[in-house]
Amino acid sequence: MDTSLSTTQTPPPTPRRRLLPSLSPQNLNVIGLIAGIVILWIVLSATAPHFGTTRNAFSILQSAADVGIIAWAGTLVIVAGEIDISVGPAVAFWSVMLSEMAGPWHFGLPIAIVVTLVGGALVGAFAGWLRAHFGVPSFVVTLGLWLALRGQAEFMTNALPVPLRDNGFMDFIGGTLPGGFPVSAAVMFVLFGVYLFISRRTSFGRSVFAVGGNAKAAILSGIKVARIRVLVFVGTGVLSAVVGIITAGRLTGGNATAASGLEFDVIAAVVVGGTSLAGGRGSMLGTLLGVFFIAIIGNGLILLGINPFFQNVVSGVVIVGAVLINLVLSRRGSKESV
């Protein structure tokens, strides 16, 4: 008897196609940040006096610039699986050094600026060298720099401001463009474009992600991990010096107590932007949105008349919340990829 009909197997059902493609954790984070910024802007415009004015928008840009300029380099540091908490004292130290060199030490402003930028690169390279060649954890290295740079700046000045003589360039760098747009914000956006290109279009950028994802595999693939670790810290060193120059221009001098807590704002912006503290994942676009998210919250709290010290509480909550969200999104992404 023919049993072909009875043995024929029913083909498996065709899987249903999703109406929308699966979004990566990074894309979900970007969408969430955009929605959060829009909601924040609407709520604060309705509740905080003068929040929605053009002048206040420029104020937000100026606040964002100090964080954002360093956050571009900070993103690559964290993507590489490292951390740099020395950037706040570095800004204060280089603002003092620039003012001293251009003033009492009679170096002249052009030489003072060059020495400041080169000095920032050397300090960053020193931190990266200790991490790369001696295996000292980057948190310990940069904690030591945090203490040394802040202490040296205070020792040199007795914690008093160092005035900078009137100078057209410094007035410009610390001031605004026609229409009120802050020069520091323009510098921030230019450097954002530079770091976006580096992270996406260069072998160095790809190597940073590889080192953060799996350093041992990166070594086996021929990547010079030690060099990558040194260079990412050179980036934060140079950009800290850049912000130190801008700060000196804005304050018309150096100040050993300037940029207090800046390092935590940078880390908060980078982590809120979706960069994993474990390394290997992150984006410049996410950091850009994180910078503005942090700046808008800080500005709104001030306009609402909330105690400035409470901003530290908000920053702490935001950082912990961002880490939790990153963990949830990472686990979700790993489950979907299985």
Into which percent range does the helicity of residues fall?
over 70%
Question: C-alpha Rg, in Å?
Answer: 24 Å
H/E element order: HHHHHHEHHHHHEHHH
Give the class from helix and strand content and strand pairing: mainly alpha
Low-confidence stretches: 1-8, 17-21
- What amount of the residues lies in strands? under 5%
Distance between the first and last residues' Cα: 45 Å
Form type: globular
Task: Return the average pLDDT rounded to an integer.
Answer: 89
Widest β-sheet, arrangement of strands: 1-2
Give the biggest sheet.
Answer: 2 strands, antiparallel
Tell me the number of helical segments per DSSP (H or I, 4 or more residues long).
14
Number of strands: 2
Structural write-up:
With 338 residues, this protein is mainly alpha-helical. Helices cover 72% and strands 1% of the residues. The chain has a domain at 54-259. It contains 14 helices and two strands. A two-stranded antiparallel sheet has the order 1-2.
